[in-house]
Specification:
The protein has helices spanning 2-10, 13-43. The protein has 49 residues and is mainly α. The protein is elongated.
């Protein structure tokens, strides 16, 4: 954990922004996919199917 903290503290703000974006994008994609799948399963056959 200390290695991650040390790396983060040595990063410039722009690199921190890229790191946060790099982590946020996959999380958003996964969330959208899960919501879509759950919505399709709940509603049954629809436009998404």
């Amino acid at each position: 954990m200390s290695d991650i903290t040390r790396t983060w503290n040595s990063m410039t703000p722009s690199k921190r922004g890229l790191a946060v974006a790099g982590l946020a994008v996959p999380l958003v994609l996964v969330t959208v996919i899960v919501v879509t799948v759950l919505g399709a399963a709940t509603l049954g056959p629809g436009p998404a199917a």
